Amino acid sequence: MDSLCNQGGEENIAVTAFYCDFVSQQQQTTSNIVGAILKQLVGRGEIAKNIREAFKKAKKEVGGRGPRLPDLVGMLRTTIASLPKVFICLDALDECLPNYLQELLKSLRDIVREFPSTRIFLAGRPPVKEDIQRCFPKMVVIPISPNTDDIRNYVEMRLERDI
Amino acid sequence: MPQNSYSVSVGHSNIHSGNIIGIGSVNNTFYNSDEDAQIMRWLSPLEPHNRHQGVRNKRFDGIRDWFLETREFREWGGGQGGTDKAVLFCSGNPGVGKTYLR
Prior knowledge:
A: globular, B: mainly alpha, 39% helix, disordered N terminus
C-alpha cells in the first residue's frame, strides 16, 4: 500500500485502500465500500461538481436519501476518468458478506472494462479465489505463505526494540 | 511471536475498517467546509484512515519486501496488459501477513 502511495507521489497516481472486517460486516455493504473508495479519491481536493450536485439533490428528497450503488459506481467512473491512474486495494475479501462481495466484484469489473489502466489489488484467504476468478478469470495470483526469513527478521527487530 | 498474529488482533479490535488515500504522503482529512464533510459522510459512513494507520504503525521495515520484487507484482503495477492484467490477488491463510505487505 505505502509502496504504491510512494510511487503515487512521484507519478500522480491515486491509491485507495479498504480493509474488510467481519466485525462490521453488516455496515460493509457494496454501496458503502464503493462509497468509501470514492470518498478517498474525492478527498484529495476540490469535490467534483457532479458529486456535489447529486448530494444536494438527494438532500432535498424526503429525509435525504443515501446514494444507491449505481449512483456511486457512476460517480466513481467520472472520478476515475478525471485521474491519470488509480489503484484500488481491497484486503480481507473473505470477511466481506458473499452477496456484497459478488456485487462489489461486478462493479469493479465494469470499472476495469471501461478504464483498463486501473489496477486492482485484492487479498484474502484462498477460498475467495474462485469468487474473484468468476469476475476476473485472467487475474494474477500470488500465494503468500509464512516465510522463515520474515519471521526471523521480525523476532530480531522486536527483540532489539523491546529489550 | 511472528508478525502475522497482528493481522488478527487488528482485525478484531478495529471497528471501523479504514481507508486512506495517498497522493504521495498527503492525507487529506480536513475538508473545506461543513458541506464537504457532509458529502463525505453521504458517500459512505465508513471512515477512512484509521485502519490503514493502524497497519502502518504495526508494520516492520524489511519484512515482505520480496513481494515488491516479484515479476507478477511489477508487471501488474506497471500497468501493461490492460484489462486482463488489471487484477492481482494475494492468496494466503489467516495470519501469513497479507495485510502487512508494504
